[in-house]
Amino acid sequence: MKAKITITPKAAILDPQGQQVQQTMEQLGYGDIRRARVGKYLELELGDDTPELRNQVQRACREFLSNPVIEDFQLDFE
Amino acid sequence: MKFSVLQFPGSNSDQDCVHAVLALGHQAEYLWHRQTSVGDCEAILIPGGFSYGDYLRAGAVARHSPILSAVIEFARAGGLVLGICNGFQILCEAGLLPGALVRNRGRTFRCEHVFLRAENRTSPFTCAVPEARTLKIPIAHGEGCYVAEPSTIADLERHGQVLWRYTDADGRVSDEANPNGSLANIAGIGNREANVAGLMPHPERACEPLAGSDDGKYWLESMIRTVTASQPNGA
Amino acid sequence: MEPELTDDLLASHGLTPEEYERIRDLLGRSPTFCELGIFSVMWSEHCSYKNTKPLLRQFSGRSPRVLIGAGEENAGVVDIGDRLAVAFKIESHNHPSAVEPFQGAATGVGGILRDIFTMGARPVCIANSLRFGPLDSPRNQRLLQGVVAGIGHYGNCFGAPTVAGEVYFDPCYDGNPLVNAFALGVLRHEQIARGAAQGVGNPVFYVGPPTGRDGLAGAAFASQDLSEESATQQRNSVQVGDPFMEKLLLEACLELLATGAVTGIQDMGAAGLTCSTCETAARGKSGIEIELDRVPQRSPDMTPYEILLSESQERMLLIIHRGREAEVKTVFDKWNLPWAEIGAVTDTGQLVVRHRGEVVADLPAQALADEAPVYTRTGRRPAELERHWSLTLDRVPFSEPPETALLKLLAWPSIASKNWIYRQYDYTVRNACVLYPGSDAAVVRIKRDSLPEVTAEAPASFPEKFLGLTLDGNARLVRLDPYRGSMLAVAEAARNLACSGAHPIGVTDNLNFGNPHDPEIFWQIQESVKGIAEACAFFGAPVTGGNVSLYNQNPVGAIDPTPVIAMVGLIADEAAITSQWFKDENDAVLLLGELSDPRDSLQGLGGSAYLQVSDQLSSGRPPPVDLEREKRVADALRGWIESGIVKSAHDCSEGGLAVALSECCISRQSGRNTPQLLGTRIELEPCEGVRAEAMLFGESNPRIVITVEKRFVPKVLGQAEILDLPIREIGATGGDRLAIRYGQETYSWDVTTLHHTWWTAIERQLQPS
Predict the structure, then answer these.
(1) Domain B2-230 has CATH 3.40.50.880
(2) Residue of chain C whose Cα is closest to the Cα of B21
(3) To which H or E segment does residue B100 belong?
(4) Is A68 helix (H, G, I), strand (E, B) or coil?
(5) pLDDT tens digits for range C307-340
(6) How many domains does chain A have?
(7) A70 in B contact zone (CB under 8 Å)
């Protein structure tokens, strides 16, 4: 099983990287770019799919891989 | 008085902390990240650097290290803990201090001498600061923008937990004087119990006139004063 | 499978058919594909200096202070007293930075740091010399931003302060930026480590992260012209730096060296495993056998060719005393670093490489390391020099009057404040830097924790020491007169050190030139090396090593010849540390040196920044250089500094006296957004036939602006007369304007305007509003 995790800065948090991407894209003429958020993406290769493993990964996302003060995460298994 | 300075793989201001403590005539020893006890030290400094490479998030891995459990225990028992730069990030990650530190507003790493105002001169980290004095201390960080929920900031302000703010040379708080975009110009904070504090600037690199400023000694002197005052035989 | 050795294959390895024949003669057979790869990197210019070796012999390493001289080891080592020494070196990472500025620059810093701690020294500071094309091009802006971010990333994370540097912008560097990185470390004499494989049967260890396909054959890449094709090829194998890993490697290596278990240590830099095994065996006059299967690898299917030539970063080769292998394991496990025993020292003189039971290379180590072909090329003086040297002042339009010329010069990126750059470098870490970036030279202190041991208990057994450090190299002057221009670079470095109170103790140089097959470029190299060698010998500053980077050209042409001089000096004591900026109101301003050089028909304007900025003229013969006078001026200045009467000292270089005076007024900074500006009123006596532009912006030398308390003026003037040195009191500090009266005219500027123009120029160019 694989876990795919996307971590993004919370909507209310200043995201200077995102701002820069948005500004630069606009300057370069890539059209109507209204907002960019820069986050990170993690891919975990896991053992067999069990509810317990899913729970553990969920917990890791909350407690270690993201910082709930500043980040949101989205976790998908496949 | 004896300070302990934590050493993580990737710490790079550990020696600066020891140098500053020794320069003031006190003792310092290192605590390796795999140790599980803080020994007999009387205060702990968590130094700057890039603990474990800071690849996931600054301080995220260090908070799970064996030594940090011991530090948390030490802090719960009322011991003084000061986190500087990466040490501040670690304390926030560990939940010993509220909020978080994110990428500087200007996106790039900033190294320069900034001016600070000690906001609450009763804490164990600020009690030796002379009144109405602007402190000149270097910063050197890429992720030093302090953020927290508005309610958290309000709480910090209400309880006198904002210990240092970025100001201009005359002690005025302004957006111009804010080097990294920190909310409310916050450079450093303490916990509610006032025994744990963290800040982004580096007082340990400003403890001798030769270094361009010796205002950093007030941090250590405040801690020394607090610890010696609490000892039964006084000092 | 062995590919056929065709001429094309040879060419792609940068080997000529003649060189191939020489290889066959040496081996008595045809090389294997793997062996061909090894020869191609070991015999590249980068590793063998095959085009410059005879020239480099002119450098004198002679000085009683030199403990390890040029070419002996990874870096030179110089005595600084009290059984302490410094190891320092500069190295280029030009081509990788052109391809991927962030990683190219970062790995350049990583490489030079490893050269220093391979010597057993703890790195205490780093510095850099950079060249870019003009900032009006977005491409050059990105290169600058990437390179600066990369240097900062590596140095800041590693924890060595970046304390000094120099940066120029010129169209000749379009598409071929220069990134030269310098590092300096400190150690006790008895801690010097050697890169020799000695003791038959001693095990050879590989330590550091696994080998991947990074930067395959980077040394060969650095030894050819930069083309779109070579860049694309290189882009597929960009080296990625990991400063965190390097920091661990540093601490682990120093800890292991302290145990005495190590007999030889060598970093894996250019040409990785190949170069490190060959060089250690050649230095030890021994042989080495290694098994590639034991080398930690990042991907499962790497060929022996790839493993041998990979330039994966942060790796070291260690030769350990037999029986003490367990200590390697203990230390490297503590730091959580991979290690592997990959072979042993032999007495055969051969480098033998095995892979899956087969010998894939069996080569004479000494021949590989030391017997690369040496070419003595012939140089030809460039025809354009006649034209440049015949420039006369009556043909200069002087388009820019002094009032605006000064503002233009201060805003010119090569002269403007570099704070946008150095504020991205941590120069405060290690509590080492005591004169921050922004003065003539940086000053770094050596204290107990600068040394490899880190125990807090060790008693301070030596007084703190202070080193001055400067990097200099005005390529425009070198192009217009390679011999004179190169001497001027050395003279300026020595002058910068003197202004900071330092006595020169050693030099490391980085020679950045175009393709040496071009006779005019070869002539530039010849003349430049001669000039550097003579000037360094004159100042008693031995050249203890350096780097040669050739083939710095893009399809349009070669870069200006760019020798970079990094000079290290020792300061007598803390009180002698001197900065360039004015300190107090009402101090006397003195000019040490002549107002104008009567021998120079261009009045100091040949090759000057003024001609460039005012009239877009990069022409004229650079001002004459007088080493004898340079030395006497520097000695006198240091004497006054050491007697405690000099408050500030700043030399005149690009932009001449007016720019130097401006910098004295505006470069002091007490903290963020807090410049400490101080004006001055200057009166210059009329000089027959010397026009104002030449007086203000001419670059004749040596000239140094100093301030002293007024009461010391008679003493200084009297002593200068005895020493037969030209000196004059030209004004006093005070007020908020820089005012210069020359003859009937007074030119005057508000110091706040000067500061703003100079301080924000680079940032303004990067962020067009």
Answers:
(1) yes
(2) C456
(3) strand B100-102
(4) coil
(5) 999 989 999 999 999 999 999 999 999 999 999 9
(6) 1
(7) yes
